[in-house]
Amino acid sequence: MKKITVLLGLLMLIPSVLAVDVLDVYTAECNNKGSIEVKFYITQEDYKVSIDSMNLKINDVLFEGNWSNDRYLKKGEDSSKENAIAIYPEGTFSKNQMYTGILKYTQESLEGATKGNKEEKTLSFYVDCPGLQFTCENLGLEVKSCVNTLNGFEADLVMKGMEQSPAFNIDPKEDIKYYFKAELPYEQVNGANTKQGDLPKQYTLKRVSEGNYKLKFNIGTNKINEMYIQYKDFPVPCPESQYPAVRFYSHLACTSPENVVETEQPAAEEPVANEEVKEETTTETPEKKSPALIWVIVIILVALMIFIYFKQKRFQHKI
Predict the structure, then answer these.
(1) What is the pTM of this model?
(2) Among residues 141, 145, 158, 147, which one has the least CA distance to residue 217?
(3) Separation CA 100–CA 88 (nearest Å)
(4) Helix, coil or strand: residue 202
(5) Domains recognised in the chain with CATH numbers
(6) Residues 194-244: pLDDT tens digits?
(7) Helix (H) or strand (E) holding 13
């Protein structure tokens, strides 16, 4: 009876051994830049989790960045190998809500009777986000076009990240630096009157769509040769080295009506059919007789006449 009890106890321990989950969430934090950082750690010794097998999704947004470790997680051997951190880019999670995360991974037993066994596991967790307020990742500038027209100057501008949240905004008139190079001096908003400088005293800047603006002004017969825009200030620090994909400034040479040169259209080639007609006409032109051929014909005719003359003389003599 005692042996049976011990055996039953051992059998009851088997499911608990097989049900070991060796990964857990250490921290899961979301900031007002729309980025989530999750730190996982391994809880059991004698188990290993390969980083390559870790598949993380938060609200179906797959993590495609690099984990803090590059091989595996294992407790006890090296404390730096006990944790793995996943950081989503700024601007990924913009809503003020609770997000659900799911991590799928493969754990491998390294010791005991289950050594070498691999199991597919799923770990669920939650992250509370405050909502996006401002991120440098959403910024971007581009002068798409700038043209001197008969009615004045026009420019199409891309200026991203202007209105990210009520608390953090960038004013396209106050927080963007505009710089122009003109042919002649012009009166500027800052009171200067030079060939190079700020916006003119009178101008309009209108938002066409999200991140797209139209700039217009008239400075008479004067013309703008180049235009430059750049961010002047940010609600938070935005070092360019940390955001290599963001364009913090843009420059473009502007066009004028005289820059467009009309090219003469090449004369149309005559149809091939006309060329064929010319060839046919040429082939019907009679060829000129060769002088040598004419002399041969003359000699033959003269010889024939002499032969006929002597033939008649002989015939008369016989008579």
Answers:
(1) 0.65
(2) 147
(3) 14
(4) coil
(5) 17-128 (2.60.40), 136-258 (2.60.40)
(6) 999 999 999 999 999 999 999 999 999 999 999 999 999 888 889 999 999
(7) helix 2-18
